[in-house]
């Protein structure tokens, strides 16, 4: 069974979803990867309350690392890429090639890009920290303007 809640952030409305194992998704209102069925609304679900609190702290520049149980569903390869995303330090960016190298599969750059784009737990699993090899900001399911804002927020905090 899935549960969800919604709350506002400086970048718009966020929907968070969890099951009994942990957080299964975090999406901005315009995200292209939201599921059709979010489950049952539960604003008192412990994991969802912790998610809202930690994301609020992140936007207030009081948190640089999330401490939440994660339970996203994906293929073994997607899980491997999403785990690698958690290795990108706050305030830094990696290229798709760096992610491919990190998982020991340097020729899988396109597959890494596809897995990155399917990450259901935005912000917390920091797919926004992945950029093109040229340093150019590439697509973000929540919108490129949100990716820019998230990176700017992290840069301003990490430079303090």
Automatic annotation (TrEMBL):
Location in or out of the cell: Cytoplasm
Domain Methylguanine DNA methyltransferase ribonuclease-like: 3-71
Keyword Signal on entry: no
CDD domains reported for this sequence: ATase
Highest taxon of source: Bacteria
UniProt-listed InterPro entries: MethylDNA_cys_MeTrfase_AS (IPR001497), MethylDNA_cys_MeTrfase_DNA-bd (IPR014048), MethylDNA_cys_MeTrfase_DNAb (IPR036217), MethylG_MeTrfase_N (IPR008332), MGMT (IPR023546), MGMT_N_sf (IPR036631), WH-like_DNA-bd_sf (IPR036388)
Domain Methylated-DNA-[protein]-cysteine S-methyltransferase DNA binding: 76-155
One Pfam family matching this protein: Methyltransf_1N
Keywords: Cytoplasm, DNA damage, DNA repair, Methyltransferase, Transferase
Enzyme Commission number(s): 2.1.1.63
A single BP term in Gene Ontology: methylation
Annotated GO MF terms: methylated-DNA-[protein]-cysteine S-methyltransferase activity
Active site positions, chain numbering: 127
Reactions catalysed: a 6-O-methyl-2'-deoxyguanosine in DNA + L-cysteinyl-[protein] = S-methyl-L-cysteinyl-[protein] + a 2'-deoxyguanosine in DNA; a 4-O-methyl-thymidine in DNA + L-cysteinyl-[protein] = a thymidine in DNA + S-methyl-L-cysteinyl-[protein]
Note: This enzyme catalyzes only one turnover and therefore is not strictly catalytic. According to one definition, an enzyme is a biocatalyst that acts repeatedly and over many reaction cycles.
Record's function text: Involved in the cellular defense against the biological effects of O6-methylguanine (O6-MeG) and O4-methylthymine (O4-MeT) in DNA. Repairs the methylated nucleobase in DNA by stoichiometrically transferring the methyl group to a cysteine residue in the enzyme. This is a suicide reaction: the enzyme is irreversibly inactivated.
Family affiliation: Belongs to the MGMT family.
HAMAP family, per database record: OGT
Protein name per UniProt: Methylated-DNA--protein-cysteine methyltransferase
Originating organism: Vibrio agarivorans
């Amino acid at each position: 069974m899935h549960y969800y809640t919604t709350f506002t952030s400086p970048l718009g409305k966020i929907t968070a979803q969890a099951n009994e194992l942990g957080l299964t998704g975090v999406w901005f209102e315009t995200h292209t990867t939201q599921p059709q069925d979010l489950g049952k609304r539960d604003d008192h679900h412990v994991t969802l309350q912790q998610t809202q609190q930690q994301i609020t702290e992140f936007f207030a520049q009081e948190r640089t690392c999330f401490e939440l149980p994660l339970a996203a569903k994906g293929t073994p390869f997607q899980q491997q890429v999403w785990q690698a995303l958690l290795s990108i330090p706050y305030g830094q960016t990696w290229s798709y090639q760096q992610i491919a190298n990190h998982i020991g599969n340097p020729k899988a750059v396109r597959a890494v890009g596809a897995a990155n784009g399917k990450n259901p737990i935005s912000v917390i699993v920091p797919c926004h920290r992945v950029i093109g090899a040229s340093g150019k900001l590439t697509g973000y399911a929540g919108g490129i303007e949100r990716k820019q804002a998230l990176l700017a927020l992290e840069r301003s905090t990490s430079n303090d």
